[in-house]
């Protein structure tokens, strides 16, 4: 059974950092594009970043460029989202998604990130 499990969310003050993890089971993340999305209460889902399967350039939404970094550990079969200089607007549930050949394969259950003083 293919599965993604996010972790690492929590409460952080503005300007702080968090590292989210997206652990995969049942498949190898090295063969998939992994994307992070987020959804804040009352708002539509928002694209955050992509880690491509071919080790090409990572892609980031304008809102997080320069603050967030996506990376991958193929041995641990895990993708990470390092989030720095967090802002209250970054508050959301963060989800990782696995895509192959442009189609969604699986999505995780999400992890809550709250940025507040």
- Roughly how many Å is the radius of gyration? 13 Å
Termini separation = 40 Å
Number of helices: 0
Round the mean pLDDT to the nearest integer and report it: 95
Strand content: over 45%
Q: What's the main sheet like?
A: 7 strands, mixed
Instruction: Label the overall shape.
Output: globular
Helix content: under 10%
Low-pLDDT ranges? none
- Assembly status: single chain
Number of strand elements: 11
Structure, explained:
The structure is a single chain. The protein is mostly beta strands and 117 residues long. It contains no helices and eleven strands. 0% of the residues lie in helices and 53% in strands. β5 (46-51) and β6 (59-60) form a beta hairpin. The mean pLDDT is 95. Strands 2, 4, 5, 6, 9, 10 and 11 form a seven-stranded mixed β-sheet that branches. Strands 1-3-8-7 form a four-stranded antiparallel β-sheet, with no helix packed on it.
Ordered list of secondary-structure elements with their pairings:
Elements: E1 3-7, E2 10-12, E3 18-25, E4 33-39, E5 46-51, E6 59-60, E7 68-73, E8 78-83, E9 92-100, E10 103-107, E11 111-115
Parallel strand pairs: 2-11
Antiparallel strand pairs: 1-3, 3-8, 4-5, 4-9, 5-6, 7-8, 9-10, 9-11
Keywords:
single chain; mainly beta; four-stranded antiparallel sheet; globular
Please give a quick description of this structure.
0% of the residues lie in helices and 53% in strands. It is mainly β. Strands 2, 4, 5, 6, 9, 10 and 11 form a seven-stranded mixed beta sheet that branches. It has a four-stranded antiparallel beta sheet with strand order 1-3-8-7, with no helix packed on it.
